[in-house]
Amino acid sequence: MESKQERPAAVGKAGRLVAAAALGALNEEYYQDLANAKAEGRPVVWITSMAPIEMVYAFDGVPFFPENYAALCSSRKVASEFCQVAETRGYSQDLCSYALCMFGSIFENRGAFGDDPVSAPDILLATEGACSTHPKWWEALQRHFNCPLIIVDAAYTVDSESLSEHHKNYLSARLRELAYSMEKYTGKKFDEAKLREVVALSDQASALWDEIDDFRKAAPTPISQIDVFTCLFPLVTLKGTKNAVTFYEQLRNEVRARVEQGIGFVAEERFRLIWDLFPVYHNMRLLNYFAEFGAAFVTDLYGNAFSGRLVASDPFGSLAERYLSFFMRSASWGKAEIYKKRAREYKVDGIVFHSNRCCRCFTAEQPDVGNILREKLGLPSLMFEGNMVDPRGYDDAQVKARIESFMEMLEARKYPK
Ligand code: SF4
Question: Does the Cβ of 65 fall within 6 Å of ligand 1?
Fold first, then answer.
């Protein structure tokens, strides 16, 4: 393989998406809303991923995702400090670094932007539907903030194929109970027509995201993995609002135009890769290091975890189905099946696993998934260790050396001399 200096100049990258750059304004507006919520009589609801955000918007609340905020703290290089503050209060460094970072920020009464902490919760809303860590984390938040805590019980299913009517009906009933609890704690009457509107907007945002995801099949692939991760913010936090739909329409149009014009993120794409799973928020540029070898990430499952189609005429039933179909609930063979399908459809050459050491739930299965993909499709993989939020223990030089070896191996396989 050529040395780094000798590699083709083919690896130039397309510029940043215009829509992605517009995210700044959307972010600013959201944090302004969050800061003004209490004065405007809107409840601030701290929410876990895979809890039904649509219910928060149906009560005119402002949702806040500590996980998303910890990611922001990490990209703003303040997460490690917050994690260490939490450790001095007795929280182990082995815990999820989203939780550690958020606790540190709370104890320090500071946030991602400096001295301003985020608005305290009026309600805490959690589910164990995504991760068993969440209810315990939210219990600790409840002890700190002394405000109502609602935990939505989600039936355990091994994968979406084994999802039965019974599971859906069970969660649907829990969501109806949630509406009563929200009435009690917000003092607002539940309005099902409003929930239907929110669900329709949430569905539109997901449909647009799925379209964008589909465009990534194009060769060259039109959008970078950094843009994919960055553009997730509205799908996570603003799903169920018009702002999210407007943003994804603009993004879809821009990505479609790139595909029509044959513009790729990597100008002369030589390798197509899958990214699994969490971003490395403190070093997002690592993703672009692959582009130096002509490699582009063309699919991932993390981004798609936040998308899911809904039916406005059946808000509770479709919300139940959507949140139970979350792919991360699948066992390793279920996840491998999804990747096998994607590997064929997106024509991939390899898979990169970020072994995110603070997230036992979703790293334990990565070696199994890698083995299945190698055995069934001959797909080579690279696994490197890191921590999504906290840079301590992450060795950039070592990771890059492993990437170089991986790319050399891919080069020899795909372009033998
Ligand atoms: S799934 Fe992993 S990263 Fe997410 S909250 Fe649970 S432990 Fe943390």
Answer: no
